[in-house]
Amino acid sequence: MILCCGEALIDMVPVVGVNGESTYAPLSGGAIFNTSIALGRLQIPTKILSGVSNDLFGEQLVGELNTSNVATDLLIRSKRPTTLAFVKLTDGHAQYTFYDENSAGRMIETSELPVVGSDVDALYFGGISLCADPAATTYENLATREGGQKVVMIDPNIRISFIDDEDAYRGRLDRMIAVADIVKTSDEDLDWIIPGDLPLSKKIDVLHQKGAGIVILTKGSKGAEAHVQGQDVVFVTAPKVDVADTVGAGDTFNAGFLAQLHNLGLLNKEALENIDEDSLAQALSFAAKVAAVTVSRSGANPPYLSEL
User: Fold this and answer.
1) What's this model's pTM, rounded to 2 decimal places?
2) Which of 171, 259, 283, 288 is the most buried (most CB within 10 A)?
3) Which of 115, 104, 90, 108 lies closest to 61 in space, CA to CA?
4) What fold, for 2-303?
């Protein structure tokens, strides 16, 4: 079982109305929500832990989680509003403006965290849920509480405009990376996490020094690579597809990587510490394949296993 921990929100996506006017369509989203949906559609046992409203948008989120085989019994429900993210698309690339003050997702506290059962093998964190308190500290506490026994994967997925306290955010990332078995980052995110003129390979070495086990670097259409200390870099190319947009691409990639580790029986701490290059290549290739389907169609719409 994989537990996805973090935001579930509504993306307000620009569309053309029936009379040709510009308007917005409310689509379910959020980095953690997208990854959980992708895992569920790949038939991987999946739960989500998130603060979700009882409003109409919250009901929409829960309905789509259930439809995609994601268990929702660990959701923390409240009367607070759902986070809204207004999306601007430029040549298929998304930019976001978030409305998150006093939201159901942002306001969860450590005292509200449920017990994580023995059926959970891995916890996945990332996205904007790590940016603002109290939720950010709540997820950090969960990662450090469970990281000694269960696999932890983090994708910071940096959203600079959402960070209120940069020093606090950097400190939180460092403490979570210290307990992470897998850290996934893009080259842009890596340059923000570790500023300066070091080459990317040296910055990845710094992540290892901070405590990260496997470090995955995604490069968009150029493919992805995995770095493990003492091993050669494992690289895979990205499948060639016609790109509709990149919304949810990284989230789906993460789901594909975790899914293949689950399928290979490697989603435990001992196995990941001794993972071989062939297994890493299989996981990266499957992740790239799943992400390629997502970018070939509009929005964060991960494929079902049957579509692969």
Assistant:
1) 0.93
2) 283
3) 104
4) UDP-N-acetylmuramoyl-L-alanine:D-glutamate ligase (3.40.1190)
